[in-house]
Amino acid sequence: MPATSRRHLLLGGAAVSAGALLTACTGNEPQGQDRAPAGSAAPAAGDKPGTPVTIGFAGPQADHGWLNAINENAKRRAAAYSDVTLEITEGSNDTAAQIGQVQTLINKKVDVLVVLPADGKALTQVGLQAMRAGIPVVNLDRIFASPQAYRCWIGGDNYGMGLNAGRFIGERLKDKPDATVVELAGMDSLELTKQRTQGFDDALRNYPNIRKVARQAADFTVESGQAKMAQLLQAQQKFDALWNHDDDQGVGALRAIAQAGRKDFLMVGGAGARSAMDAIKADDGVLKATVLYPPTMAASAVDLARALGQKKGIGGLSELEVPASLTLYSAVVTKENVDEYLPTGFH
């Protein structure tokens, strides 16, 4: 997908468990009410409604399945709280336009801001502007250039995605002599792509019988995935596993694989699209797993913003304050656990 449309990195904690941890202190449903299924963006049982909070949300243009899921998770989570009003911008991948949108939210004097910047470095100054105006900023995924530009950061673990993909493939191939793998990466101009590749390569170092024999960078789109995968298949007549960085481009990759009639390797995807999970559950093709980069982080960002607006900490932690950063875990979804993660799959 476009260079202005994607994700970044940082610390540790699981996607589903992080949501449970956050809503333990920020939920507004009565005690004892049944918990909604994972990924539904409904708060868990927790405290009663508190001080009304207006949250300004400046997200990306929804030109990719994951990005659309970010926006939808934020909307659904906010709607589940009777004490939260969400002021949401149209969404833009143009940095100047997004800066203007955030400044409009600052001028409206929202209580808290949640910002997934089109470009973290470019939007750092507007983050600083909000913080100087006394508006706490929850920096979602793509990180600002200065920690002074946000109160809390929450996002995914790109290095962890590659690491867990490599471990899954490594365990599958550890007893196969002279095993070979190929990599269908994202955009090499993005730091996140480099992090995913680094994690993958580091994991493979633990399996001396496995060599990476080819790598092709795509653009996070169906079309690029199909074209680049076709090139890989033509160049590599035989290999044992494929690590694909993104499930959207994976749709195209799977088309190329089907057109080539190839079934002689296993494939691991990335991000957690519903189509990938459905294919994993059916278990009738090469796709055997996907490594999550959970868009539920947007729902958790709303939880964090609500807690900041109501001057609360997070249930389950001893500290009185919301953490400075929270990194979601890149779980591996396989046929054995796919039913647990299906509700979090995005379209």
Automatic annotation (TrEMBL):
Domain Periplasmic binding protein: 55-311
Transmembrane segments: none
Pfam families xref list: Peripla_BP_4 (PF13407)
Subcellular localization: Cell envelope
Region Disordered, annotated ranges: 27-50
Alphabetized InterPro entries for the sequence: Peripla_BP_I, SBP_2_dom, TAT_signal
Segments of skewed composition (Low complexity): 36-50
Keyword annotations of the record: Signal
Coiled-coil residues: none
Family: Belongs to the bacterial solute-binding protein 2 family.
Name listed for the protein in its UniProt record: Substrate-binding domain-containing protein
Taxonomic path: Bacteria, Bacillati, Actinomycetota, Actinomycetes, Kitasatosporales
